[in-house]
Amino acid sequence: MVMNFVANPDITVDRSVRHFIFKAASLAFAVFFATSGQANETLARKSDCLGCHAVAAKLVGPSFRDVAAKYAGQPDAVEQVSTSIRSGGVGKWGEIPMPPHAKLSPADVKKLAVWVLNSK
Ligand code: HEC
Description:
Blueprint: H1 2-46, H2 64-71, H3 77-87, H4 106-117
Bound molecules: heme C.
């Protein structure tokens, strides 16, 4: 009885502490993803992508949502889309070519590719 009385509050405290840490961690992740999404949108704006693309509408190029849908479930999607962003291309979506973006660093190209592929 005495053992129980002593042990139970400990368990309760332990659980709520763990719960708190879990909540704090999920919040940190949510903030991290939200801000990294924003950072990538800024990167897209800086890199002139949004002059020809929008997330949800076709402009000169396909909407990023359509690109994400086309590559959904393809294991090499990030690589393929990275190559398209870096080298440009024509014929996958229509007759208008996309110019190459050779000045972007490989890390920025990858960030943009992942961001595009996560468009909803
Ligand atoms: C001058 C207009 C223009 C600019 C600037 C531009 N794009 Fe494009 N983009 C296009 C066109 C047009 C296509 C379709 C090409 C095709 O049919 O193959 C395209 C296609 C794409 C695709 C699909 C590629 C594929 O493999 O299916 C992605 C992803 C993409 N662009 C991302 C970007 C990103 C990121 C940027 C900025 C770094 C950017 N685009 C800048 C016009 C542009």
